[in-house]
Design goal:
transferase, 5-stranded parallel β-sheet, 13 helices, 10 strands, binds fructose -6-phosphate, alpha/beta
Length: 363
């Protein structure tokens, strides 16, 4: 069943091009109907979004905030389910409540969905990988990702297919709100449909990432940096590394370095940097200089034309192409591979990391 792979996690990382293509398979036009019969009516009446999730699904939500505000112009809040369900919040009936979950059974996310509904927020949408799950049954609207069964405890293909669905949701809401002209829509959809191919090209970087994993395997701490929409990707990279390799990893928006984490930087700590070629590149480069000045070792996933080259203390893996708004889907892939190979070298049980369960159905 594993074919050429050693673990389900590795297999699932390599299934991502297929999983994303399947998630897009039934998509023709960008229309509310993709999210359920009542979606047209609901989307018309929505003026903000509240995303609720846990873990990796929470990072998918955080990523999509940048799309929803940047492309669709809709205010978007993102909450950790276990926090949201227990705090006093101010409900707004015009909010679209979006729960995101691979399993659709995560206790806190399901309870948060019911909590939102009890507060009078009945416009609910679940993005989920399991069509028959509790969350899908409890929601008015739904989008089913087609990642296929995910066995590895560390979520990989579920994450990238969630991002695929969330980008579609963004386009759909942008269109409903009259903020998407047909030319842009066609261009975004062209980019989205090309993602499976683009992910395949990123997967071909595996041997280079393995060489880095050899060095990471002997570390006890790592720092991950990103900016803008790639900050949640840095968070996801750090989560992957900590949960399967048991290396302590923290992610920061690079602009926060000076406000504390720079104190951690010395020769011994690897600093993984997500470096897309976007409008924040120059800012990111100056953050990298701060690390360099403290003799930190930088491990940079850099797009083409960023001018970033390997030097003594900067190691660069070049990403195959710049991918504009969909770049997070590509940049998370080498971080998954880095965590996987580091954990494997350390001899860990990659598919069943200690203390963790695949589906957290109790609080
Ligand atoms: C991390 C991971 C977990 C899950 C979280 C939510 O790799 O798998 O953080 O993302 O437990 O699970 P779902 O998406 O099933 O609600």
């Amino acid at each position: 069943e594993l074919g050429p792979y050693r673990h389900y996690m590795q297999k699932e990382i390599f299934e991502q091009p297929r999983a994303i293509a399947d998630t897009l398979e039934a998509v023709g036009d960008v229309t509310p109907g993709l999210f359920g019969e009542k979606a047209a009516e609901v989307f018309n009446d929505v003026d903000r979004i509240l995303m609720i999730a846990c873990g990796t699904s929470y990072y998918a939500a955080l990523t999509s905030k940048y799309w929803l505000e940047g492309i669709a112009g809709i205010p978007c809040d993102v909450e950790i389910a276990s926090e949201y369900r227990y705090r006093k919040s101010v409900p707004n009936p015009k909010t679209l409540v979006v729960t995101i979950s691979q399993s659709g059974e995560t206790a806190d996310t399901l309870a948060a969905l019911k909590h939102a509904r009890d507060l009078g927020m009945t416009k609910t949408l679940t993005i989920c990988n399991v069509a028959t799950s509790a969350m899908v049954r409890e929601s008015l609207l739904r989008y089913i990702t087609r990642a296929g069964v995910e066995i590895g405890v560390a979520s990989t293909k579920a994450f990238t297919t969630q991002l695929t669905a969330l980008f579609l949701l963004t386009l759909c809401l942008a269109k409903v709100k009259g903020r998407l002209d047909p030319k842009d829509e066609a261009e975004y959809m062209r980019l989205l449909r090309h993602v499976p191919k683009a992910v395949s090209a990123v997967l071909a970087l595996e041997p280079q990432v393995m060489a880095w994993a050899e060095r990471f395997a002997s570390k006890e701490d790592a720092l991950f940096l990103g900016r803008g929409i790639h900050y949640p990707i840095a968070l996801e990279g750090a989560l992957k590394l900590k949960e399967i390799s048991y290396i302590h990893a923290e992610a920061y928006p690079a602009g926060e370095l000076k406000h504390g984490p720079l104190a951690l930087v010395d020769e011994s700590i690897p600093v993984v940097t997500v470096a897309p070629n976007d409008e924040l590149l120059e800012k990111l480069k100056s953050n990298m200089k701060e690390v360099e000045a403290r003799k930190g070792e930088l491990y940079v996933f850099a797009d083409a034309d960023t001018g970033l080259e390997s030097t003594e203390h900067i190691h660069v893996i070049r990403m195959p192409e710049n991918y504009g708004p969909l770049s997070p889907i590509l940049h998370v892939v080498p971080l998954q591979l880095l965590a996987y190979h580091t954990a494997f070298i350390r001899g860990n049980d990659v598919d069943k990391p200690r203390n963790l369960a695949k589906s957290v159905t109790t609080e």
